[in-house]
Amino acid sequence: MVSLEDEPEISSIYENFEDVSARNAASRRSVEDFKVPAAAPGMKMNRLVVVSFGLLCILQATLNISLRLTLFSQKNSLTEERDEMKRIYLDLEAGCNNLTEERDDLKRTLENYVSQQNSLTEERDEMKRINLDLEASCNILTEENHGLKRTVEEYVHYLQQGWVYFSGSFYRISSTMKTWQDSRKDCQQRGADLMIIDSQEEQDFTGQYKNRIWIGLTDRDTEGEWKWVDGTQLTTRFWHSGEPNNYQNQNEDCVNINHYQNSWNDEVCENEYFWICEKKM
After folding, report:
1. Strand duo 274-280 + 265-267: pairing
2. CA 230, 235, 238 angle in degrees (round to 5)?
């Protein structure tokens, strides 16, 4: 098959063929004019070859034209398809760009929602902690209020019963005399115990009472090991000179005091004296 690139050559052959045909026609007219009776056999063969070649050239030209038209049509079709594909591509690209933008917007929106949710969660947890702290504070204040109410009630109660308040404790001096053990029982029945003296101020406080009184100090469990009624060891001492001494070999296991300074004295527990009770608030 002849390609489109051979079209100029075919055109040249076709033009040569037309020239040959024209010359042959002129020759025929000349022969007729000169009345040549008959053509030579070789001339007939040449005419046949020329005519055949001319027909072949015409056929080739026709085929070339048809092929060119077909290729041109295919080219136009491909061009249209290419342009259509370009338009489709551009549309798809635009659509993808729009989808990308929408995706990015949705991502930002989601991130904002997540950030807001996290912020709200933190605020909620912080409010929970604040509420718990407030609740704990309220509970503490409620307990303190109840404690203060009880303290006030006890304060009023003990004052009405003749007790004296001093330095965080109530004190009550008896109006009768009993043994050390009976004196302690009386204090315990009143929700108190015999007085414990662990400071100079308390020792000075007892100076207002002029009678000899029992306090809550004894070595009845172990001789020479003085303990207070709450089980604590003796640390602060206000013994009278020469005391304790188990005077005249008596079993002096309990302590009473007088109104003057350094007046502690060990005494026989079965002797009867006034006593002083102490109730710590």
Report:
1. unpaired
2. 105
Q: Are 210 and 248 in contact (CB under 8 A)?
A: no
Contact predicate 228/234, CB 8 Å: yes
| pLDDT, tens only, 182-223 | 999 999 999 999 999 999 999 999 988 888 999 999 999 999
Q: Which pair of structure tokens corresponds to residue 236?
A: 């602060």
User: Taking phi first (over 0 means left), then psi (-120 to 50 degrees means alpha), and beta for anything else, what does residue 159 get?
Assistant: alpha
Q: pLDDT tens digits for 142-157?
A: 988 888 888 788 788 8
Contact (CB, 8 A) for 240 and 262: yes
Count of other CB atoms within 10 angstroms of residue 205: 18
The phi-psi region of residue 232 (left if phi > 0; otherwise alpha if psi is between -120 and 50; otherwise beta) is beta
Eight-state DSSP code of residue 164: E
Residues paired with 135 in a beta bridge: none
Determine contact, residues 163/172, Cβ cutoff 8 Å: yes
**How far apart (Å, rounded) are the C-alpha atoms in residues 114 and 116?**
5
Query: Rounded to whole angstroms, how far apart are CA atoms 28 and 19?
Result: 14
pTM value? 0.51
